[in-house]
Amino acid sequence: MILAKLTNPMSYQHLKISNQQAQKVVAELYNIHGKASQLPGEIDFNFKIENENGDTYILKISRPGESYNYLDLQQKILHFLEKSDGDFIAPRAIKDKSGKLISEFIDNHDQKRKVRLLSYIDGRIWVNVNPHSNDLKYSLGNHCGLITSVLQNFNHPAAQSKSEWDIAQSLWTKEHLHLFNSEEKEILVYFQNKFESVQNSFSSLRKAIVHNDANNLNIIVNSSLEKPKVKAIIDFGDAIYTQIINDLAIVCAYAIMSQEDPLEASLPVIKGYHASFSLQEEELEHLYSAIAMRLVVTITKSALNKLIEPDNSYLLISEKPAWQVLKKWRQIDAGFALLSFRKACSYLAHPNENKFSAWAKNQKVNINDLFPTCNSNSVYHIDLSVSSKWIGHHKDYENLDLFQFKIDQLKKQHPNKIVAGGYLEPRSVYTSSAYDKKGNYGRESRTIHLGIDFWFPALTPVHALFDGEVVTAVNDSGDKEYGGLLILKHRQKGIDFFTLYGHNTVDSVLQYKLGDKIKKAEKLTELGNYPENGNWAPHLHFQVMLSMLDYKIDYPGVAYFNQIDVWKSICPDPNLLFKSKELSPIKGSSNKEIIDFRNQHLGKSLSLQYKEPIKMVRGAGAYLIDQNGRKYLDTVNNVAHVGHEHESVVKAGQEQMALINTNSRYLHENINDLTQELLKTLPDEISVLHFVNSGSEANELALRMVKAVTGKKDIIASEVGYHGNTNECIEISSYKFDGTGGNGTPEHTHIFPLPDSFRGKYTGEKTGEKYANEVKKLIDAIHNKNRGVGAFIVEPIISCGGQIELPKGFLKKSYEYVRNAGGLCISDEIQVGCGRLGKTFWGFELHDVIPDIVTIGKPLGNGHPLAAVACTQEVANKFANGMEYFNTFGGNPVSCAIGTEVLRTVERENLQQQALEVGEYLKNELKKVAKDFPVIGDVRGQGLFLGIELVDIIKNPLARQAEYLINRMKDFGILMSVDGPDNNVIKIKPPMVFNKTNGEELIYYLKKVIQEDSFFKYKL
Ligand SMILES: Cc1ncc(COP(=O)(O)O)c(C=O)c1O
Predict the structure, then answer these.
(1) How many angstroms separate the CA atoms of 332 and 262, rounded?
(2) How far apart are CA 329 and CA 768, in angstroms?
(3) Which residue blocks in 660-726 are alpha helix, DSSP H?
(4) Which one of 639, 700, 722 would you pick to mutate in the ligand 1 pocket, going by the greatest count of ligand atoms within 8 A of its CB?
(5) Other CB atoms closer than 10 Å to residue 845's CB: what's the count?
(6) Cα(750)–Cα(743) distance, integer angstroms
(7) Which residue's CA is the closest to the ligand 1 atom numbered 14?
(8) How much distance in Å is there from the Cα of 855 to the middle of ligand 1?
C-alpha cells in the first residue's frame, strides 16, 4: 500500500466501522439485508455479510480519501478473471442499486467512504489449514501461476503506482534499520545489499500485473480434508505491475513460514507455479533474494505499524513467523537454493551438468593418474551402503583397526585391484550428530555419499589430474570430518569445475596457499591416517563439483537424501572421468520389484505394514534404517528387546555359530546357562524349562502339557486374545477365530469377555471380581456339559485386545476358580515378559499369582527364533510320560547363547528399570496430552507396554484417526502400531533401550499430528 496511508494521523478508532454500520451500509446501497461479521483486513474494513437465504458476500469499506483508480483496478481485475476461460474461482464484483461497482457512503465522522461488495468464497483460510502438505503447496503455486498467466493480457494504469509491498521497490526498508537490534540489522542489511547488488539484472526481468499478495490470509483452501486444494486467491488490493517473479516470491514467503526447512517447503510451490506459468531461468536467479525481501518488507512494516497503529493487531500477524523464517533463510546457501529452484522447474539443477558430462566423456583419465604409485587401474567395488553385509555391525565399522584389517584382507583377496566406490551410495556410517537435522518430515540424516572413496594406505601420494588452482587448503579437524582437505579449481574448455581431496595428512595440505597453481600430474598430497584424517581408515575421498556454492573451508561430501537430485547435478559422478565399469553405483531391487515378487511367490495372506511399505535393511538400538539410510524410531518392536542388533547379542550368536550348532541330545553348557538365567527370574515353584522356537510352539507345547496333566481339553481364554498360529493355538485365539476368515468359537474353547475396564462389559467398581465371575460361569458351563477344565490361559496385559491391563483381583480370583475346578493356569508372557513391564520381570507377578505354566517367546531371542515353556516340577513330571519330547532346534547352543546374552544384557544395562522410568515418563506425558486432546480416551499399560485408546465423547472407537495417526507418525520417521477389537488403540512397545529423549520426540510428533485437520475428519 501507499506509504501516505499508513502515516494517516487520524486515529484508528475514528476509522473503524461497527457490524451494525456495515449491515446498514449493505442494506442501503445494495438492498441486501444480512448479518455482518468482521473479517481481518490490512487497510480496508472487511465484513462477511450473510442474508436469510444463506447467500454470503464480502463488504469492503475503504479508508477516507481512497483513490478511485486504485479500487477500479481491483474491480477490473475481478471482472477480467470472471470473463477469462481460466478454470478457477475468483471473487465476483457485485454492483450497487445504481449499477456501480464502487459505491459510497458518509460515515459517522462525516467522511466519504468508498464501498465494494464481492461474492464470498467458502472454504478454509490457508493459515487455519494444518498440515500444509506438499500437494497442497503445489496446488497453491499452481493456482497463483494460473492467475498470473490469465493476467498476462490485462492492463490498467493504476497498476503502475508506487507500493511499499512491491518487492521491486523494497529498498525503502533501508531507511528504517534503526528500528532493529544489531543481530536483526545484520540480517536485514545482508539481504538488502544482496538485492541491491543485482538491480541491473533484476530490473530487466519480465513484468506484468500480478496479484502480489498471496499471503496466508488471502488463500482459500477447499473443504476436503483428505486432499485439500487451493480454491481461490482473494484480495487483489496489492495487484501491481512488477517483475513476475515477485508474485511467486510472495507466495513462497508465506508458504514457508513455520516450517523446519523453508527451502524444502518452497519447492512444491515453485513446481506448481511453474506448471501453470512457465518461469524463466533468469527469473529463478532472483527468487532467493526476492523471497527474503518480501520478508524484510513485512518485518519493517510491522515495526513501523507498531508505532503508528498499536491497536491494529492484523498488522502484526506475520511479524514473528516472518522473523523466524528470515533467520532460517539467512542460513541457506543462496546458490544451493537457486539450483533447487531450477530442479523444481525441471531445468538442469546445475546449468553445466550436461556440458561437463560431454567434456568428461572425451577425457582419458586413469585412476592411477591420481595414484601413480599404484600400477593397476582395475577396481574392486566395495559396498559400504546401509545394507552392506561387508560392513557388518555398526560397532564393527566404528572400530577403525578392525575396519582397516578388513580392507587389508580385501586387498589380499584382490591383489591387483583398487578398492574403491561410493558415488551416491546411501551410507549409515555417518553417526556424528553433525550429520543430522530436523526437517519438515522429522529427523533427517545426511547419508548420500557424493564422491568416490579410494582405499589406499596412509601416506599414499595423490597427484593432480588437471592443471588447477588451490581454492581450499585446510585442516578440517574433528571426528568424521575431512582432516587435511584440498580443493582445486579447474577450467577446461570454458567449464569451471572443482576437485576435492579429503582425508590427507594435514602437513601435505597446509603447504598450499590459496591461489597456488598446480600442474597436471604434480604430486598434491599424501593420504592421512586416523585420527588426523578425520578419524577414518586411510582413504581418499575424491569428489567433483561444478560449483563451490558458498563453501570456503569445507564442502559437503555427504548429502541429505531428499536433496539428492540437486546434489548429483552439482557433484557429477567422478567416474565420468575414469569410466570404470566396476565403479558404477550398485543397484538393488526396487521396492516395487520386491513387492511384486512377494505377491507372486510368498504366502498370499502375508501382510505388509503401511500403505507405502518400507524396506528396512539395518537396525540399531531403538531405530530401524531403510535402504536410503532414513532412521525410523521404532515403538512397535518388542521382539528386539534389548535393542535392534544389540552388539553383545549379535556377537554371542556369531561366536557360537562358528563353533557348533546341534540339537540338545549332546551335552552343552549353553542350554544349562540359559536355564539358569531364566530360573533366576522365575519363582521357585516354576523350575523346569523346555526350549522351543516360537511363541506359538511354546503355547502348543503348554496345551499338550495340559492334556497330559489333566486329561482334559477344555480351555478358557480371553475374548480378542491371541496365542499363536498353530492349529491348537488358533483354536484358543478369539482374535483369530472371531475375526476375518475365522469359524467362531470351537467346541472346547470357552471365551470370557475382554476384561476391559475402560470400554468393556464391566467398568467402575469391582471390575476384577465381575470379570472373574465370568470365568466362573464358563467353568460351570463346562461342568454342565459333564466335562472338566483343562486350563485357563491369559496374557497379563492383553496385547491384541488393545493393551488391556487385567483389572485388580481378576487373575487371583480366576486362578482360584480354575484350580478349584482342577485346571492349570498358563501365563502367556510372550509379549510382555523379560522385564518390559518395569515393576516386575514377569507380568503375572503384578497380580500376586504363580502360574503352573509360563510361556516365553518374542523378547528372549532379540529377534532370533527362541521361545520357552517354564513349568512346575509336577507338570513336567506328568508330561514326561514316556514319550520322548524331541525338538530339532529347541535349545540348540546358538539359540541358547543368544537367549543367555539377552537376559544378561537386560540385567547389565538395567533395562527393566529403564522400562519403568521411561514408561512412567511416557504415560505421564500422554496423560497430559489426553487432557488437551480428549480424543485420547485412555492411556494405560505398564513400563514400555502402553496403549493409547482413541474415542469420541461417548467412547465410540476412532479407528480411522488411529490409522491416520500411525501413517502420519511414519511420515515423521516414527513407527507405531494399532490394535484392539476396534482398531483404535495405538500400541507403544519399543525395544527397551528406548530412552527419554526418544520419548520426547515421540510426544512432540504425536501432539503435532493430533492437531492436524484430518485427524478430526471422522469426528462424530
Ligand atoms: C500373546 C502371544 N502369544 C503367542 C504368540 C505367538 O508367537 P509367535 O509369533 O512367536 O509364534 C504371539 C505372537 O504375536 C502373542 O502375541
Answers:
(1) 9
(2) 59
(3) 669-681, 695-710
(4) 722
(5) 17
(6) 14
(7) 724
(8) 10
Query: Of the residues 858, 860, 945, 989, which should be mutated to test ligand 1's pocket, given the most ligand atoms within 8 Å of the CB?
Result: 858
Cα 186 to chain center, whole Å?
A: 33
Q: Are 869 and 854 in contact (CB under 8 A)?
A: yes
pLDDT tens track for 411-448? 999 999 999 999 999 998 765 556 678 999 999 999 99
Tell me the pLDDT tens digit for each residue of 612-637.
899 999 999 999 999 999 999 999 99
- Residue 989 in contact with ligand 1 by CB distance below 6 A: no
pLDDT reading at 8 higher than 70: no
Model pLDDT for residues 712-767, shown as the tens digit of each residue? 999 999 999 999 999 999 999 999 999 999 999 999 999 999 999 999 999 999 99
Three-state DSSP at 486 gives strand
864 Cβ closer than 6 Å to some ligand 1 atom: no
Whether the CB of 793 sits within 6 Å of ligand 1? no
Provide the percentage of residues in the chain whose pLDDT is more than 70. Answer: 98
- Does the beta carbon of 723 sit less than 6 angstroms from any atom of ligand 1? yes
Beta bridge partners of 791: 715, 824
Does the beta carbon of 721 lie inside 6 Å of ligand 1?
A: no
Helix, strand, coil percentages in the chain from 3-state DSSP, rounded to 5: 40, 20, 40
Q: Is 831 in the pocket of ligand 1 (CB under 6 A)?
A: yes
Quickly state the pLDDT bin for 1009 (edges 50, 70, 90): very high
Confidence category of residue 1005, pLDDT binned at 50, 70, 90? very high
Q: Is any atom of ligand 1 closer than 6 Å to the C-beta of 638?
A: no
Instruction: Report which of 50, 54, 105, 44 is spatially closest to residue 75, judged by C-alpha positions.
Output: 44
Give me the pLDDT at residue 1, please.
Answer: 40
In percent, the amount of the chain with pLDDT more than 90 equals 91
Measure the CA–CA gap between 835 and 678, rounded to whole angstroms: 12
799 lines ligand 1 (CB under 6 A): yes
Q: Is there an atom of ligand 1 within 6 Å of 696 CB?
A: yes
pLDDT score at 310: 78
What is the Cα–Cα distance from 711 to 694, expressed in whole angstroms? Answer: 25
Q: Report the alpha-carbon distance of residue 482 to residue 486 in Å, rounded.
A: 9
The 10s digit of each residue's pLDDT in 188-225 is: 999 999 999 999 999 999 999 999 999 998 999 999 98
CA 61/CA 36 separation, integer angstroms: 13
Give the position, in ligand 1's atom list, of the atom nearest the Cα of 867.
10
Q: Of all protein residues, whose CA lies closest to atom 13 belonging to ligand 1?
A: 724
Measured from the CB, is residue 664 less than 6 Å from ligand 1?
Answer: no
C-alpha cell at 837: 513391564
Residue 638 C-alpha to ligand 1 middle, in angstroms?
A: 11
- Average pLDDT, whole number, for the chain? 95
> From CA 30, how far away is CA 95, in angstroms rounded?
8
Confidence of residue 155 (pLDDT cuts 50, 70, 90): very high
Check pLDDT > 80 for residue 262.
Answer: yes
Gap from CA of 962 to ligand 1 centroid (Å)? 23
Would you call the peptide bond into 531 cis, given omega within 30 degrees of 0 as the criterion?
A: yes
Identify which of 844, 856, 779 has the alpha carbon closest to the alpha carbon of residue 810.
844
Q: Which residue CA neighbors atom 9 of ligand 1 most closely?
A: 695
CA 526 – CA 512 distance, rounded (Å) = 13
> pTM of the entire structure?
0.94
Using DSSP bridges, classify how beta strands 974-975 and 631-634 pair: parallel, antiparallel or unpaired: parallel
